[in-house]
């Protein structure tokens, strides 16, 4: 399949906003479905406290951030979609500890370190996973944790009917090797109904 048949990730998520698709306001059955990848167990793994600085990679409209921001000292989210970032800022406006960045995680220059970095249902959009994990390791404080949720089903293409998105499937064993190579220590690999939840820390 030729790359010209696909839309970019940023275009796709911009289009979702235009279609009024905002997971923050999903009906309860859909929220419960999404929780099968990153629900209460995933949030628990973040080990949040009011003293911690947190970064979410691929914040989207704030589906997870609305649960996290009130439990930490500072919250930073980054996303590549301009319209999604605008919506996230609106959804999170009640929190005075939140900053939302428009940018590509691999290209953006951060000026802070974090106690907790997490990402869910995002890594399959990242081609260069090894460099992404190395950058995450560099952004963690000593003893900081990185929590990653990757779905058990990994399509190479996602077809939305009106458009197709090229995916870069996550291989759990390769991800674990990249984490080890980046100097991250494995704490646990847990499972939800739909996903593997990998918890690592920087020693």
How large a portion of the residues is in β-strands, by DSSP E? Answer: 25-35%
Helix-strand pattern: HHHEHEHEEHEEEHEE
Total strands: the figure is 9
Query: What is the CATH domain class?
Result: Alpha Beta
Helix content: 25-40%
Termini Cα gap: 43 Å
Biggest sheet descriptor: 7 strands, mixed
Mean pLDDT: 94
Low-confidence stretches: none
What would you report as the Rg, rounded to the nearest angstrom? 16 Å
Q: How many separate helices?
A: 7
The chain-level structural class is alpha/beta
Strand order in space, largest sheet: 3-2-1-4-5-9-8
Fold and architecture overview:
The chain is an alpha/beta fold and 203 residues long. The protein has a single domain (3-202), classed as Rossmann fold (3-Layer(aba) Sandwich). It has seven helices and nine strands, in the order αααβαβαββαβββαββ. Helix 4 links the parallel strand 1 and strand 2. Helix 1 packs across helix 5 (82-91) and helix 6 (129-139) crosses helix 7 (172-181). It is globular, with a radius of gyration of 16 Å.
Key descriptive features of the protein:
Rossmann fold, 9 strands, two-stranded antiparallel ribbon, alpha/beta, globular, 203 residues
Would you summarize the structure shown here?
This protein has 203 residues and is an alpha/beta fold. It has 7 helices and 9 strands; from the N terminus they run H-H-H-E-H-E-H-E-E-H-E-E-E-H-E-E.
Topology:
Blueprint: H1 9-18, H2 28-38, H3 40-45, E1 53-57, H4 65-68, E2 74-79, H5 82-91, E3 98-102, E4 114-120, H6 129-139, E5 140-151, E6 157-159, E7 164-166, H7 172-181, E8 184-191, E9 195-202
Parallel strand pairs: 1-2, 1-4, 2-3, 4-5
Antiparallel strand pairs: 5-9, 6-7, 8-9
């Amino acid at each position: 399949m030729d790359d010209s048949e696909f839309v970019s990730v940023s275009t796709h998520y911009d289009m979702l906003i235009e279609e009024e698709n905002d997971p923050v306001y999903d009906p309860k059955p859909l929220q419960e479905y999404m929780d099968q990848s990153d629900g209460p167990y995933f949030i628990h793994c973040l080990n949040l406290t009011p003293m911690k600085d947190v970064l979410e990679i691929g914040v989207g409209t704030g589906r997870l951030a609305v649960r996290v921001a009130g439990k930490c000292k500072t919250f930073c989210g980054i996303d590549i979609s301009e319209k999604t970032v605008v919506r996230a800022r609106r959804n999170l406006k009640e929190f005075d500890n939140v900053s939302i960045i428009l940018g590509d995680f691999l290209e953006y220059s951060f000026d802070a370190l974090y106690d907790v970095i997490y990402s869910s249902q995002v890594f399959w959009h990242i081609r260069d996973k090894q460099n992404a994990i190395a950058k995450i390791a560099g952004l963690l404080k000593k003893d900081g944790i990185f929590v990653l949720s990757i779905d058990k089903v990994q399509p190479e293409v996602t077809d939305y009917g009106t458009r197709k998105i090229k995916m870069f499937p996550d291989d759990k064993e390769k991800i674990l090797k990249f984490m080890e190579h980046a100097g991250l220590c494995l704490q646990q690999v847990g499972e939800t109904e739909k996903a593997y939840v990998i918890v690592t820390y920087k020693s």
